[in-house]
Amino acid sequence: MRYREDAKVLAAIGECIQAQAGRVTVRLPRTVAEAAVAAWERDDSAGPGEESREEYALRDQAAELALIGLAVSERGRWEGEEVVIVLDVASAGAAVRAMP
Prior knowledge:
The chain is an alpha+beta fold and 100 residues long. The chain has helices at 2-20, 30-41, 53-75, 89-97, and strands at 23-29, 77-79, 82-88. It is flat and about 50 Å long.
């Protein structure tokens, strides 16, 4: 199937990008950073149960947000109303892909 080969090429590009830009430094407004930390601290111990593709995608985005919240809480440097944080390029990419 052609899509499997496309996925392999995309993964190869990802490996190149990871090697060149494994981490990126970003600035987040305080309200966004605090919401990300709250997502990390939230207790979601209940299993997802049966879910649609859309619900799965939303849960995946929530997990990415929580990982960014972990990074903010562990490594974030507050500068006034912003936090400066070094993110893994995959987390940064997940945030960009979540944009409408």
